[in-house]
Amino acid sequence: MDAYSFQLSGGLCQRAMIAIALACQPALLIADEPTTALDVTTQARILDLLLELKEDLAMSILFITHDLGVVAEVADEVAVMYLGKVVEYGPVSRIFHQPSHPYTRALLRSIPTFGLDRRHRLQAIPGLVPHPSRRPVGCSYHPRCDAAIAGFCEQNVPATTRLADDASVQCHLYDPAVDDAGRPDPRMATR
Ligand code: SF4
Question: Boundaries of each Oligopeptide/dipeptide ABC transporter C-terminal domain copy (predicted)?
Fold first, then answer.
């Protein structure tokens, strides 16, 4: 109680922060990258603590992270975001085993795998995330997308398409208004 924050380890700081956040027994805890920069052992302890508290306090957790391993461990439902928009949403098993959006698929391909040949190159997503003030027109992901429909995705913002009762995607590839050959339906107005 008497220590300054700089006297605590990273793991202790995280625990203190969680204690502060839970002091009022919230119904929803928003945890934004709560395990970033922690070693994997401390990260595992923090995750266990959060999941235990979730059950004990009957609260929900909105967990924000770039770590897909953490997502697989803690999430029930996943919202994949790109440039501030939810591009795919669904149960965690669907996101990992049946990903739909090209960005989700690329993210999963870029997870390093143990045991690969040293010469095997890591699969990265080409390009960089654009600055929010220079958001590409059409689909924001089109400059980096390996499945983009030339001449269409860079002009039309994809609508949200429902894939199941509990899953949706924002991509022209799943839009019934774009035909099977990947050509836009001529009846479709430019969004
Ligand atoms: S709408 Fe087009 S550019 Fe955007 S993710 Fe889908 S295929 Fe790729």
Answer: 87-150
